[in-house]
């Protein structure tokens, strides 16, 4: 069983050489008393938050509490889709398709209590479970509707807009009747947002020198909702351009993950006078909207109203470059690694 691990904790931007491929024997059978399930991994999710689990937390940083830190040499769990090959758990049978916490490797030995459930692909690609119908989709849906509470016609700005969460925020907001502008890191990404995904407008933030002025250009009357995926200067510029009673959903701050010295410092007096609400959130706290999200998104997929933007590479050995690429902006849409064909 080949799997990816880190050689040592990572500080700063990750490099492919921080990772290694290891091999370990896999049990051929499991004792029914153990409730273990062996899963052949098919698709694994590649997510920016993983970097925060791969850092050393010896300094002033505190370990994030919703996913444990990773020890060098050990496997790295991630959301993904697989097929049961051996089951010692009465809830699962051989050949069941499952989604849950599997590993960045060929196979996963899933312990009882670890998130794993059977699913029906409903005729849709299995990879959708990892992105649009998985946590990326739920994050976009819950962050936009639960946290930002949009009203029709409101003006929405989303950063990292061609990414997995960002593109869906924009698509949901458009379908709901908002005006949507996205920022992304290349001309190609900007073209996809405007021409393929129906954003009202989009810009390449790497070509802009004064983000406050840029946002003023795109939102002369101000922003109602900012869906923040990047933090730092972009958050400051967005807050400076918010309308009174604007809402900022802080989904993630990817530009700060690789740079410990970088922190958003929005003008707090501005926040007070404009009565802006800035709220962080975690998708996992919003499982109450999961069925609603799933139903609506499946309907929108079947009628072609929403599109799944995916970026898939192949093989366990491609995981380090897929992961490192998130921080270089290599991916367009949900980054997924296909480990094996069904
Ligand atoms: P993406 O698919 O958006 O991939 C990351 C993208 O971020 C890159 O493609 C890149 O696009 C952009 N990026 C990378 N570095 C920088 C930088 N320094 N400045 C600005 N943009 C940068 O990833 P996800 O959609 O999975 O995640 C997006 C955000 O949402 C992350 O912050 C993540 O941590 C967060 N998240 C939060 C969840 C929650 O429950 N709160 C759940 C899932 C994700 P570009 O070319 O535009 O630079």
From TrEMBL:
Residues 12-337 form the Enoyl reductase (ER) domain. It comes from the Eukaryota. Keywords: Oxidoreductase. Signal peptide: none annotated. The keyword Oxidoreductase applies. SUPFAM superfamilies: GroES-like (SSF50129), NAD(P)-binding Rossmann-fold domains (SSF51735). Coiled coil: none annotated. GO terms for molecular function: oxidoreductase activity, acting on the CH-CH group of donors, NAD or NADP as acceptor. Transmembrane segments: none annotated. It holds the Pfam family ADH_N_2. InterPro entries: ADH-like_C, ADH_N_2, ER, GroES-like_sf, MDR_fam, NAD(P)-bd_dom_sf. This is Enoyl reductase (ER) domain-containing protein.
